[in-house]
Amino acid sequence: MLSMLFENRKQLFWLLLPALIMLGLLTLYPIVSVLYNAFGQMDYIDDSYHFIGWTNFSELFDDFFFLAAIKNTFIFTLVASIAQVLLGLWLALLFNRQFYGRKFALPIIIYPMMLSTLVCSSIWRSWYNYDFGFLNSVLVSMGLPPQEWLFNPDLALYAIALVDTWQWTPMAFLIILAGLQSIPKDIGEAAMVDGARGWKSFIYITLPLIKKQLMLAFLLRSIDTFKLFDKVYVMTGGGPGNSTETLSMFVYKYGFRFFDLGMASAAALVMLAISLLMTLIYARNVMKGS
């Protein structure tokens, strides 16, 4: 289509060249650099590089902390993504109809998404405080014992997932709401004439029609939660122990604390491969449905 707008292809090439250069610098070069480092070992004393093949990968999958990081990452991704899509669906169904105060409630629902991660993490870290935090004050007022939200290995990961759900459910909500509002009203009216109402109408008519939006929301949130780093860095630093250490945190520690670029790059490639797999599964399902 673009080539039809220009008389010769050279003009089109020169117009696209800046974007191609930026793509190469910001995407292709980092990937090639990570590949190069993943199969080697840097010697910082004599500033040399030694090719060691698959050694970094074999050591990586024998590393207890890496396997724990994979487990934590998958648990967080599933819990946060599913919670955000389900809450987003519930909110979208609620806001897909007119009610008093809708135009005032909508900006409030979207507001957390507009805050920076640092601000969100700081707010929730104060709320999670054991002695004077908002959540423990509520628990004590209800006669329940306070919780060590960020210092209990069994709770810390889910506490961070709650923060991520609070901040990013609005994204899933907006995607699903757009899908609901794209459904022609004639379909709903025809369903009511045929006797499909309530849950039957929702399960057999509404859900199939917004399937792509649900999948898109789940994919975007899964990819974003899978590479979680900032909230963990600010709120727990990967602790207590390694109960909240994710793959991104693992890469950061090996690359910028232990200065082992080989192991960090190998872990980053594993993350990239998993993210690509998730994207390919989504693309395949979309192409099947189209």
- C-alpha geometry: globular
- As a percent range, the share of helical residues equals over 70%
Question: Runs with pLDDT <50, length 5+?
Answer: none
Q: Major sheet: order of its strands?
A: 1-2
Q: Give me the secondary-structure category.
A: mainly alpha
Give the helices and strands as they follow along the chain. Answer: HEEHHHHHHHHHHHH
| Corresponding CATH architecture of the largest domain | Orthogonal Bundle
State the major sheet: 2 strands, antiparallel
Q: What's the CATH class label of the largest domain?
A: Mainly Alpha
Number of strands: 2
Distance between the termini: 22 Å
Description of the molecule:
The chain is mainly α. It has two domains: about 50 residues, no CATH class; about 230 residues, MetI-like (MetI-like fold, Orthogonal Bundle). The chain is built from 13 helices and two strands; from the N terminus they run αββαααααααααααα. The protein has a two-stranded antiparallel ribbon. α1 crosses α13 and α3 packs parallel to α7. The longest helix is centred in the N-terminal third of the chain and has 32 residues.
Quick synopsis:
The protein has 290 residues and is mostly helical.
List keywords for this structure.
cell membrane, MetI-like fold, transmembrane helix, single chain, MetI-like_sf, 13 helices, 2 domains, two-stranded antiparallel sheet, transmembrane, mainly alpha, 290 residues
Helix and strand arrangement:
Elements: H1 9-38, E1 40-43, E2 48-51, H2 55-60, H3 64-95, H4 102-114, H5 117-127, H6 134-141, H7 156-181, H8 185-193, H9 198-209, H10 211-226, H11 230-235, H12 247-257, H13 261-289
Protein name: ABC transporter, permease protein
Membrane topology: Multi-pass membrane protein
Main location: membrane
